[in-house]
Amino acid sequence: xxxxxxxxxxxxxxxxxxxxxxxxxxxxxxxxxxxxxxxxxxxxxxxxxxxxxxxxxxxxxxxxxxxxxxxxxxxxxxxxxxxxxxxxxxxxxxxxxxxxxxxxxxxxxxxxxxxxxxxxxxxxxxxxxxxxxxxxxxxxxxxxxxxxxxxxxxxxxxxxxxxxxxxxxxxxxxxxxxxxxxxxxxxxxxxxxxxxxxxxxxxxxxxxxxxxxxxxxxxxxxxxxxxxx
Length: 229
Known about the structure:
Blueprint: H1 2-10, H2 19-28, E1 30-34, E2 39-41, E3 49-55, E4 58-63, E5 69-75, E6 80-81, H3 85-88, E7 95-98, E8 102-108, H4 109-118, H5 121-146, H6 149-164, E9 165-167, E10 173-175, H7 181-188, H8 192-205, E11 208-211, E12 214-217, H9 220-226
Antiparallel strand pairs: 1-8, 2-7, 3-6, 3-8, 4-5, 4-7, 9-10, 10-12, 11-12
Keywords: DNA-binding, Kinase, Transcription, Transcription regulation, Transferase
InterPro entries: cNMP-bd_CS, cNMP-bd_dom, cNMP-bd_dom_sf, Env_Response_Regulators, HTH_CRP, RmlC-like_jellyroll, WH-like_DNA-bd_sf, WH_DNA-bd_sf
Domain HTH crp-type: 147-221
């Protein structure tokens, strides 16, 4: 489980966790693999634990009242998913599907609770992680409610750069995940045609580019400003 130990040491979601707690979580974790298209859990399923993503990518989605899929997030190596189940024991609030074949580490809720009862600091740390995820969700909801379309697209690209971003020269950021315009539109809550126009405008202005099929944020400061309420 050296991969998981590396995840715990390097992931921003568990940054600052004491080494003895990281070692304890490593012992609790169960490695697993899922194929592309596999569903980890669906909305309403029992919350029986959380997953650390070691390799691959997952999407988090819900269904609208009309039955349309709404993409909430795309997660990659270094992210946790389902961590809320470790704290509240309620059913899953979203569906998580593998966009690519993925290697994961599963931490069972009951095993986590026994370990955390002996190490209360772990509960406090998990609350801080859940709080950060809640703030991110609030930012997305606020963007969809109050930002114009360019701002919503910018917010989506900035969010993706936090998970998949690779720094390049001159402050540029490469989103090292191949996104379709439909995926960006889904996350931004907009029609693909309208999002395509925004992306093409930014390409002409030199705000973004495409490198080998990946989106590159040439001027991330411009996008960050556009994504700010």
